[in-house]
Amino acid sequence: MKVASMIDENLETPHGNRTGLSYGELAVLLLTYIVSEGDHRMCCLETWVNEHQRSLEGITGWKIGEKEATDDRCGDLLRTLGSSDSLTQIEKLLCQYLVKAYELPTDKCRSDTTSFSVYHQISEEQEELTLLKFGYSKDKRPDLRQYRQMLATLDPSGMPLLGMTLAGNGTDEKDYLPTWRKMVEILGKKDFLYLADSKASSYENRAKIQAEGGNYCFPLAMNQPRPKLLADWVNNPPSEVIKIFETEVGLEEKEIGYGFEVPLGNIWVDPENKKRYQWNERWLVVKSNALASRQIKGLKRRLIKGEEKLLSLQKRPNKDEKLLEQKVREALKKQGLNKYIAYSIDKKQSYKKVYKGHGSRSDPSSYRRVRETKLILNYARLNSEIESFNTLAGWRLYVTNTNKEQLSLTEAVSAYKEQWQPERGFHRFKQGRLSALPIYFRDENKIKGLMFLLTIALRVFTLMEFVVRRQLHQSQSSLAGLYDGNPKRSTERPTAEQMLKAFRKLTLYIHRDGEREVSCLNNIQQNILRLMNIPEAIYTTDFFASG
Question: What angle do CA 22, 28, 33 make, to 5 degrees?
């Protein structure tokens, strides 16, 4: 991947008194540690490098000193990376090289953002200078500061084209246009299809991408009046409704939904310079059968849970009307049922006899009547609203500025189904093998540097998967032996984590006379290397000797 040389050629050199590994070489050591150990803690790197010093020197040909990988040196590396103006240039050169080297398709690209929460306390002096802000938390921790990470990937490999570390309090919709422009710069073309979530579908983003010669396909944010427009179109389609099919390898066509499209013209005026943008779009009205089934089942479950809670309140309604109404509203809100269940609270008054003293109760003058008010909770499903929900379940609005020859309705649905690719990268950053959490750094430049290196590591993972899966697809074969306890189970889509795990038991033996020996490769290890187009010679002592 030429990571070391690209970093060294574009990053400022270390202090003149510093000797040993360059920033690029140290970055490769750190990346190797992160990928193999699933850990980004600087304090553990020095011990790991010392334990594997002979192997690392043999593989790289570098002279690795005892104090090369201290946390101070790694901290300097991350801080320099994060503060450098050359970071974008390094990423650009790296991606251009990888796209060419691996012959990656560049017809479709997509992007998304997520947030990373930290536990740091920030002083008032740092408030305006730091990335760590309070904002909308996708981790459901609004009480914690956070930063956001933008990730743009290539289809179908899922390889990151770029990653950007952003302030935690920003709005995502403002970041999609700059992301698209950087992708254009990296790929050197504008005719790729840009896919993103509904936050990218603002009129400004669509107008400017169209004006600058780009192609996009976005789901529309369902703010007013679009829900009513969608309902009107679904109930009275203005064009022919077609069935949408999906073909899986080795299987017959499967019907996955319905759809139709409506051509519309758009006009948007830039509020800053009053420039007028006018262009044509295709609004794609699409129903996913799987999504419709999930939404209908979900509403049924919520109705049952909501009614169970209302029934318990009905049996013990309490005597405080305001308190009862508050509990009913909370129950409906929790299950999202305000539109689907109606309720009322009635009062029933009665007069209870209260006798005086302990004497005979036959005398009418020995008691008094006390008025009692009983609260009665009534509720019922709004069947018309539920029926309307079921009718619209699974339907979504998408918008694209491409023509039918460039992107058919079926192709648009198929393209958007792959939107999980950036999400998978985020999962690896949060809970997977390349986890950035918890964040130990308080210096935002170190955080930027860490996320830059983690994005390179993510490229390693996605390229491993893409190359192996492409080879398996071309040979119409599968890979067995990756699953513990079931060695015969095979897969056509092995993950990088599974393949790395298969190499964990390799050992370099160093005998007393200085001779070296590497444990023999088993069948699964040989198969993985063959599928990755990597020679088995990298696990021989001859390769170690040659560096």
Answer: 130
> With 0-12 CB in 10 A as exposed, 13-18 as middle and 19+ as buried, what is 440?
middle
On whether both 205 and 140 belong to a single domain, the answer is yes
Beta bridge partners of 347: 375
Q: Residue 60's pLDDT is what?
A: 87
Same domain, 313 and 272: no
Cβ contact 483:24 at 8 Å: no
Which residue range forms the structural domain that includes residue 76?
Answer: 3-84
| pLDDT single digits (tens) 317-347 | 777 888 989 999 999 999 999 999 999 988 8
Identity at 206, one-letter amino acid code: R
Question: Does any domain span residue 95?
Answer: no
In this structure, the answer to whether residues 33 and 153 fall within a common structural domain is no
pLDDT of 359 > 70? The answer is no
Give the amino acid at 401: N
> Structure pTM?
0.85
> Which residue type is seen at 110?
R
Cβ atoms within 10 Å of 498's Cβ, excluding its own: 18
CA angle 237, 243, 247 (to 5 degrees): 155
Whether residues 387 and 522 share a domain: the answer is: no
Q: How does the average pLDDT of the chain come out, rounded?
A: 88
SS3 174: helix
- Same domain membership, residue 258 and residue 155: yes
Same domain, 432 and 368: no
Summarize pLDDT for 485-517 with one digit per residue, the tens: 888 899 999 999 999 999 887 888 888 887 888
Please report which helix (H) or strand (E) contains residue 152, including its range.
strand 145-154
